[in-house]
Amino acid sequence: MLRQLLPHTGNAIRVGITGVPGAGKSTLIETLGLKLVQAGHKVAVLAVDPTSSITGGSILGDKTRMELLTREENAFIRPSPTGGTLGGVTRKTRESILICEAAGYDVILVETVGTGQSEIAVRAMVDFFLLLLVPGAGDELQGIKKGVVEIADAILINKADGENKIQAKAARTEYNRALHYLTPATEGWRPQAYVGSALDGSGIDKIWSVIESFREKMTASGALKARREAQMQQWLHTVIEEQLQRNFYNQPAVQAALPEMETAVRKGIIPPTAAAQKLLQIFQKAISK
């Protein structure tokens, strides 16, 4: 099916959105989504949450939190697929992006719900990556999110309303100073921090104009095309690795030898490298019969 859809894909802007718990990702997505739908866009919201199959994650949460957007005819919200692993969820999300584009959605918003590697996974499937932070977050948070700051194309200090405005502007200055010393995530684009409030809508139009400017500039330079080509190539290698791993662990000869090897490795009888080599030899012998 994907082969048939492929010629009808690629026309949407793909935006990844991440942030610490409580940063207001869902509120931002709903506010931005409503503005875009009202402006004539078709918006698809996809969630990447590798924990959803264990904890219930965002399976019901996204639609509950984005109640107004759910009612819009030109908006589609798909909760995180229950892939069990990040790899499974990522694969299904990549496929969903192509399906949504073929269906005519011209804005794809991909939300990371989990933490850690899910941000890296989403970065590898979108054009623009937005990091959401909150005013008053201390050095501890900055340390945790340093790796994510480095892959962001823009930072939005959300909840910049009421008494938080002064703190938000101070945070913006601080992050802009930090971004100045980091290598940009996208060549030819200098990330900046902005302030806004998903609750009252302030600053959201600005963020969208930044995303549009990014797309225009990166399309003109050829960087967007190059990024998407690299992402498709990475997807190819990922699928090959996953299939090889699946074939390896499903091989009866490997399944028979694995417990003994694991025990030997745990007890320090044999190093992991030697055990892996032995298991690979067993696998190769089994498939060559």
Automatic annotation (TrEMBL):
GO cellular component terms, A-Z: cytoplasm
A molecular function GO annotation: GTPase activity
Pfam family, one: MeaB
Gene3D superfamilies referenced in this protein's UniProt entry, alphabetically: 1.10.287.130, P-loop containing nucleotide triphosphate hydrolases
CDD domains: MMAA-like
Family statement drawn from the similarity comment of this UniProt entry: Belongs to the SIMIBI class G3E GTPase family. ArgK/MeaB subfamily.
Cross-referenced NCBIfam families: lao (TIGR00750), PRK09435.1 (NF006958)
Protein's recorded name: YgfD: protein that forms a complex with the methylmalonyl-CoA mutase in a pathway for conversion of succinyl-CoA to propionyl-CoA
